Each structure stands twice: as C-alpha cells, then as structure tokens.
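Section 3.1: Structural characterization of target chains.
Under the original work plan, the team committed to producing a structural model for every single-chain target entering the pipeline before any wet-lab resources were allocated. The record below documents one such target. The sequence was received from the expression subgroup and is listed exactly as submitted; it comprises 369 residues.
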Amino acid sequence: MSSEPTLLFVVGARPNFVKVAPVLDALALRGGIAVRLLHTGQHYDHALSASFIERLGIPEPDHHLGVGSGSHAEQTGKVLVGVEETLARERPDAVVVPGDVNSTMAAALAGAKAGVPVVHIESGLRSGDWTMPEEVNRVVTDRVSDLLLCHSDEAVENLAAEGIAPDAVQLVGNTMIDSLLRLLDPVDRGEVTERHGVEPGGYVLVTLHRPALVDDSARLAEVIGVLERIAERLPVVFPLHPRTRERAAAAGIELSDRLIGLDALDYLDFIALEAAARLVVTDSGGVQEETSALGVPCLTYRTTTERPVTCRLGTNRLVGLDPRALAAAADEELAGPGGAQPARIPLWDGKAGARAADAIVSFLDEPAP
C-alpha cells in the first residue's frame, strides 16, 4: 500500500472493549496501521470508566457518540447515523466490529452501505433462538461482513452452512480469553474474596440479566427463591445488573439476607470472584466462556446457547428455564468433589489477538475486488 491504512474500531459495551483490546495491542506492536476508536456509548455505566479502559491498554476513544439507553430501534438508528458520519470524515480502509450488541450490527450496516469493508470479531456464533435480539444482530452482521473472524470450529461450520464464502472466514480463537488471562494474572484473588466476605472455593457467584428472565416477575421470584435455598449450603454472591435490580424493585421482590447482593462489579473484581467460585450460575454469554477457560463449573440458566463449545469441551451446562431444574443441577454440582480442569478449547490460548491482527493485515494487503 502506498499510504498507511486506517482501521475504525467501533465498540459499544464492556465485553466489546475486552474483545478488541488484544487485537489493538497486536496491531500497535506491528505498526504501520493507523487505528481510530469509536465508542458508541450504548453502555455507559461505571464499568466503562477511564481506569477500566486504561487497564485494558486501550487508548482513549477518538470518537464518542453518547447513544445511551433506548429501544433497539433507537440505539440502532443513532449508531447508524453516528458511524456513517464518522466514516465520511475518517474514510478508513475498514471498520472493525466485535460481538453482537446493537452497536455491532448498526456499525456493520453503516460500513456496508458506505462501501467500507467490514471485519467482524466473534463471527459465526448461533443459538438458533430468534427471540434473542443478539441472534438477529449476529446474523445480520455476518451477512454484511467481508472478513469474519471466528473463535471456534463450530462458528466456522455455522458460517459454511449459511453459504458464507470460505475465503472470507478465518479461525483465530477467542480474543476475550486473551484479556481474561492477562488481567487476572496479577490480581490478588484472596484480597478480593476477603473484601466481599467469602472464601475461595466456598461460594456461588450469580449473574442474571436477560429480559426472558428478569422481565417476568413470577419467574424472577422463583429463581431468587432457588438462590436463597442454595445459600443455605454456600454463600451466594449476586452482583445485580441495573435491569435486574429495577425489575425486582418494580415487582416488590426483595433479596433476603442470605444473598450477598452487590451493585454491578468492576471487571477485575468480577473475574477474580469468578475464578475463585465453587460454582457460577449465569445467563450471560461471555461468562460461559470465561468459566470454561478458568475451569470453574457453570450452570447457564437459558434454553439455548450460542456457545455450545463451552458445553462440549468446557465446564458449562445448559439447564433451561425451569427453576426446579436449576435447583437440581446446583444440588448435583455442589454434592460433587468440586473443581474442574480448564477447558482445552483450540486457540483459546491467549494468542488470539495476534492471530486476528495477522488476518486483518492480510485482508488489507489484498487487492480490492
């Protein structure tokens, strides 16, 4: 290339920053590529403080859209307009989008409509559940992307089944695990568990936030009842997502003293608690991957998962939405010896960021069609 190519990375939620950090770091080490970072502001709580971004080694974003909360249509529309304007000013050689939030899909659409090549980090994840907005975002983003970076063999297979050209797909591994391993290594897990009043290996960590659960007051009350029964055996640490807290309050659901209810945690505190937990209960996608990489048993309170590799090769178990099934699975797990081996999922080795950077550079070096 005659001039330094430019990449525009678009991020909109905490997991997005975790996923792009290793790629940005690898590109910086390579040199020769100008990188611009746009933060849509889809998530804007303390979890995206400047200190968090700095710990990831990410430079201050060059652009802030300040999209904030709103309906799916509102967020998507605001990001489309904002990214379109930024593309017109920056004229990058490619736009890079991670994950599956509304910002991801909107930025990919903006790039495709502007004729700017789109690179998708974490392509090919599929749950088959079209009631999940994230599933729509994943499929649309992959359909308009020019380079699709996958974290597992099954993601590559999903894209092949959908007719995506094999030349556009690269298996690079899980960049989120790169960040997890790097940030967790220096953390004093004992200090974190002591600060929260629990002992390593002696508590259950819970994260629940999806609308299918928390927007149904009866179902939410039943699940909290199950957690309170689990707490009779081991302490239950329950960081409350803002949506979960709001829905519980609106329904008049109060947490008993048996549960250690917390505000949303700093990322380093969360992964330290996650790594030292006896068991994790979640409806999050990323937590399924993190627990598998850490060797911590995980019960996923959902009927589907877009990450079946965590059940096949990892430590995750899908239990459905019946509270009785959750209670039975927790009883079974806690009756066992505890502990698990970290997953041996290919390319979840802390080096995915470098492979993703290599794939992007090779893509930029290819002559335009």
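The chain has two domains: 6-173+349-365, 183-335.
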